Amino acid sequence: MKKFTQYYTDDKNKWEYWEAHRKCILSIIKDRIIDVQGNCDNVAIFGAGHCNDLDLFELSKLYNEILLLDKNTQHMEDGIKSQNLNKNSNSKISIIGGIDFCGITPTFYDDLERLLKDGVKYKNIQKFIRKEANNLSKPSLPLNHRNNFSTVISTAVHSQICIKAVALLGEYIDNYSRKEVLKLNDEIGYLYSKAVKIYNDLIISLANDSGSILFILDHSEISDISKNLKLLPILEQNLNEGKLTDNLVITQNCRVRGSIDCTKDIEKRKKNKAFVEDEEFIHQWLWRFENKKYYLVYAYTIKKGRLIS
């Protein structure tokens, strides 16, 4: 297992690097959610972070109300401030921070690190992770937000779910045999699947009965670290030719954890008729995350139906 590399870096060029990514997101909102689906009243955006992927001024022209949600309140405040918005735009924005979208116990990661660092038997750690996974519950948000938004967006959040557990296992990997590491990795995978379902429940609960939900998944990593930058020209050519399925095939070995679990959960809900995928608008693009690091983004919209857990 390769050592974990931090998703967020201190790179100060995010706003510049993410310009094309930001425009793609805005284009989907304008061209599909608003122009076609007519959902232009208010929007809730999960994973707002520093807002480098959100043009808040343009969004404020499209929506009467913008709710930003992220675990880190300060990141959102700094992101809003950095965009130098006028008074009218600022007045439309509110934030909710300090919550874990999956209901992870606040002490879980500290406890997991202690167990791994002390070299506790892997079976005991398996039980600890399994207990956490089975006890997850949807976080509480103000009741007035439930079933309230015409548009709900999740932007590159699924890849971050439980990522700290992966990081910790990588940090203390030498304390366990390869077989034990694989067993623990599988247990973290179980935690992922449970957490993704909780998170998707939360997303769907905020959309009103005819609301649009936009899932933006950082599907695959193409980077110098992953040693697959040679895929870039192939991916670009396929995008130009509309060969989206080909891109999914050639990047299946570099998929980002979380996107897989999200896709599985969405497919299950579609079979149960929980909502209907907007088949005509499944989109891909390359997100230049930083120097020598890209993500193949897979994005699609969902029209909310009856929610089946």
> In terms of structural class, how would the helical and strand content be classed?
alpha/beta
Number of strands: 7
User: What percent strand?
Assistant: 15-25%
Distance between the termini: 33 Å
Helix content: 40-55%
Number of helices, where a helix is a run of at least 4 consecutive DSSP H or I residues: 12
In words, what does this structure look like?
- The protein contains twelve helices and seven strands.
- By secondary structure, the chain is α/β, with parallel strands linked by helices.
- It has a seven-stranded mixed β-sheet with strand order 3-2-1-4-5-7-6, with helices on both faces.
- Helix 3 (56-62) links the parallel strand 1 (42-46) and strand 2.
- Helix 6 runs parallel beside helix 8.
- The radius of gyration is 19 Å and the shape is globular.
Helices and strands, with pairings:
Blueprint: H1 14-17, H2 19-34, E1 42-46, H3 56-62, E2 65-69, H4 73-82, H5 87-91, E3 93-96, H6 108-117, H7 122-134, E4 149-155, H8 163-171, H9 178-206, E5 207-223, H10 232-241, H11 244-250, H12 259-271, E6 275-290, E7 293-304
